[in-house]
Write a structure and sequence with these properties.
Length: about 300
């Protein structure tokens, strides 16, 4: 069986992880056709941890050479529609307002409950991978990743703001250090993962229309990263019911006094993480090998 990943975008490199992780655990090989612009160390991380040393350019792709193709983003127009009948296409859906036609199988990165009809919960997988855990920082530390990080009003969110170390990470931010806030521009992936794993929380606080969509229609890359590295998520309270997973802390409208996570909260993160990994394995086994026995347990 020949399988590959297809990604023409200069982003979404984090989506490779849970597929490469599965193939490594199964002792299988997989080819990768991808753009390599602005990967910020993701491809180097994969070379080190998953043994992927060749990244084929998109122009080399031949659909007739593969049994299955994972398309990592559901609006990747570089994958031609006429290729659909030459191989079995597995599309990773990122947005509940889109519907993909012509795919052999679609996998949603969360359940799209507002889709009509709602997406099948059995075909939804948070793209979590089996990353190593790290020892946590001594001082209470919160990481925020993405474009909203530089505009956060942190004292309005946390009543004990001065007692917390904040690490703000984004490719558009200006690197700087203040009393308890460190900003990182285009941080290398290995460091991004380490800092996220050593932090006590990963904060997602939306400040744009695109980020507000993550309540119902999509997810932030922070969500699977948090479970992969074993760090609880901090989110607006209203997101909790819509997302429907454990291991998160809701922030109300008024500032909260943040404490280090309890062992109970860490255990909830680990249990949810293991559930995502087991579900990924069962669904991929069913898609690629027809293992409907494991899939029926979802």
């Amino acid at each position: 069986m020949k399988v590959c990943i297809f990604n023409s975008f200069p982003f979404h490199y984090e989506m490779f992880a849970y597929i490469l992780d599965y193939f490594k655990e199964r002792g299988l090989t997989i080819d990768v056709y991808t753009n390599t612009v602005n990967h910020h160390g993701w491809l180097d991380f994969y070379e080190k941890h998953y043994g992927v040393f060749v990244w084929f350019p998109i122009s080399f792709f031949n659909p007739e050479a593969y049994d299955y193709v994972f398309i990592l983003t559901d609006d990747d127009k570089a994958y031609k529609s006429e290729w659909n009948n030459k191989t079995k296409v597995i599309i990773i859906e990122h947005d509940g307002k889109r519907n993909n036609v012509g795919a052999y199988f679609t996998i949603q990165n969360r359940q799209f409950k507002l889709r009509n009809p709602p997406s099948d919960p059995n075909t939804c997988i948070m793209p979590v991978w089996n990353n190593s855990f790290y020892d946590k920082y001594n001082k209470l530390t919160v990481v925020s990743i993405g474009s909203s990080s530089d505009t956060l009003n942190l004292p309005a969110l946390f009543s004990n703001f001065e007692e917390i170390n904040f690490l703000l990470i984004d490719r558009r931010i200006n690197s700087s250090v203040s009393k308890n806030i460190t900003k990182y521009n285009k941080l290398d992936t290995s460091k991004l993962i380490e800092y996220s794993a050593r932090a006590h929380y990963i904060l997602f606080w939306p400040s744009s229309p695109e980020q507000l969509e993550h309540e119902h229609h999509s997810i932030s890359g922070s969500f699977p990263l948090a479970f992969s590295v074993g760090t609880p998520l901090l989110l607006p309270e209203r997101f909790i019911r819509s997302l429907g997973f454990n291991g998160i802390v809701g922030i109300p409208d008024s500032p909260i006094h943040l404490e280090k996570p309890s062992e109970e909260l860490y255990n909830k993160v680990k249990v949810q993480r293991n559930a995502y990994l087991e579900k990924r394995n069962s669904l991929f086994n069913m898609i690629l090998f027809g293992d409907t026995i494991n899939f029926s347990r979802l």
